[in-house]
Each structure stands twice: as structure tokens, then as C-alpha cells.
Amino acid sequence: xxxxxxxxxxxxxxxxxxxxxxxxxxxxxxxxxxxxxxxxxxxxxxxxxxxxxxxxxxxxxxxxxxxxxxxxxxxxxxxxxxxxxxxxxxxxxxxxxxxxxxxxxxxxxxxxxxxxxxxxxxxxxxxxxxxxxxxxxxxxxxxxxxxxxxxxxxxxxxxxxxxxxxxxxxxxxxxxxxxxxxxxxxxxxxxxxxxxxxxxxxxxxxxxxxxxxxxxxxxxxxxxxxxxxxxx
Length: 232
Hints:
Blueprint lengths: L5 H8 L9 H10 L8 E8 L11 E5 L10 E4 L2 H10 L3 E3 L1 H8 L7 E4 L4 H4 L3 H4 L17 H9 L2 E5 L5 E8 L4 H17 L10 E8 L5 E3 L8
Helix pairs in contact: 2-8, 3-7
């Protein structure tokens, strides 16, 4: 086991063992315990009381964060020629079709999100082996397969993210940057948790949100009291 650095020890000393903080407190504390020299991402981990192995307890959705993610999201729009101008004007980083399909077949995946149209999914299906493992496969449920190409690109650029519970029942995603104010971190976290609550499967029994942790890249996790999420 590696030894803790001086900064890591200092960060841990600021967290009271066993304490569940309010969302407001955690949003302030996560900034204090971050010692990285770069603008670290702020991550949220929510353990749900669901069994992801059962189709009727799968939790997956999209959320538009009020203050965005703070990340530069690289968007590829795979669309027909009549939609290319719309995609470009909306801010897509790469726009085209066959040439990019060929690039992806060759192993190119230097992108964060792919947005495409229903009529093109037949061509993209063959890219599943490359895109699937990287979480890049477009999906109607996440809003990345649509004829409203321009709107979809804008939403992603402005902070729309999609998420999915993993096989252990945890939903993990980034909701901002450490450079954000505590209020912006809290607003984004509240919106994310609110979305999770709306997606509660009817088949899920018992406690739905079992635990919430807020952390930044390389920082310890700060436990949050789920009851505090609705507090101002």
C-alpha cells in the first residue's frame, strides 16, 4: 500500500470520519480538499437500491446540468449533407459521414460524443465493436440519435450528459470542475440527483438512494446526507 502524501493527509484531516455532510457543506469541502495543480473534475457517486441485472430496475437517463460540466466536449455529427451546415453552426467539432465512419473503422475515437440520425444507424451499427467499449455508441434514449441534429449538438455543448447505473448499482459521473463556485457545484449535484429520483423504477423496493459521495480527481470522497439535497 502506497504512503499518503503530505497533501493527502491534510485533505483527509479535513473530513470528519463517519460524518454525512449536507450537500452545501460537501460542495464547499470538496474544493478545500483538492490539492491537484490542474482544474480537477468534480465527481458524484450515487449508490442505488436497485438490481441492474433486472431489466425493470435499470436506471439510465440524461440530464442538462445548469452550469455545464466545465469540460470541452468534442462532438462528432454523423449526418446527411443537408444537415451538415446545421451541425456546424450548432458547434459540432467534426461533421460528415462516410469519411468519419472509415476513420472510426481504422481506430479513430478522438471524440467524446457522437450524434447521428435514425436513417444512418444502419451504417453505424457496424462500428459497435469500436464504439461500444468506449461508451460512444449513439442511442435514442440519450438523445444522440435524432433528426434535430442542431439542437442535440447545442445541448451536449451546454452540459447535457447521459448516465447509466453500473453492475454494482452505482451511478458515477462528473458534474463540474473544482474551479466552479460551491453554489454551482451544489446546483449541478441537485439537478443530477433530482433526475435520478424521477427515474426510480417502480420495481425498486426499499431505500432507493443508499449513499451519495462527492469527490474531485484524486481527492477523498465526501459523504453526503441524502436528506440534505432539498435544502437551500
